[in-house]
Amino acid sequence: MRQLTLYGREYCGLCHVMRDALLAQSAGRFTVQWIDIEDIDELEARYGELVPVLTDEAGQEICHYHLDQAALDARLANLG
């Protein structure tokens, strides 16, 4: 099963929306690891105001701010 990573902040409304959308469709397709970047300087510097940021197993960005369903489906198909 594929592992996706969602970077965000616990207080970020957009982050919660994307996390909920991903969890709703993940069953059998992928797992989602949530990482709160708030106290991690390296991640804060990398993602800053882009959160939420969804990446694949290789760390390649799939989308940020809002879930791009077409980009997610294409990436999962390519990882397949």
Count every helix, treating DSSP H or I runs of 4 or more residues as helices.
Answer: 3
Helix-strand pattern, N to C? EHEHEEH
- Share of helix among residues? 25-40%
Structural class: alpha+beta
End-to-end Cα distance, whole Å, is 9 Å
Total strands: 4
Shape: globular
Which stretches are poorly predicted, pLDDT < 50 over at least 5 residues? none
Give an overview of the whole structure.
The protein is α+β, with helices and mostly antiparallel strands and 80 residues long. The chain has a domain of 54 residues. It is built from three helices and four strands; from the N terminus they run βαβαββα. It has a four-stranded mixed sheet, with helices on one face. The mean pLDDT is 94.
Topology:
Elements: E1 2-8, H1 13-25, E2 30-36, H2 41-47, E3 53-55, E4 61-64, H3 69-79
Parallel strand pairs: 1-2
Antiparallel strand pairs: 1-3, 3-4
In short:
The chain is an alpha+beta fold.
Give the key terms.
80 residues, alpha+beta, 4-stranded mixed beta sheet, 3 helices, 4 strands, 39% helix, 26% strand, globular
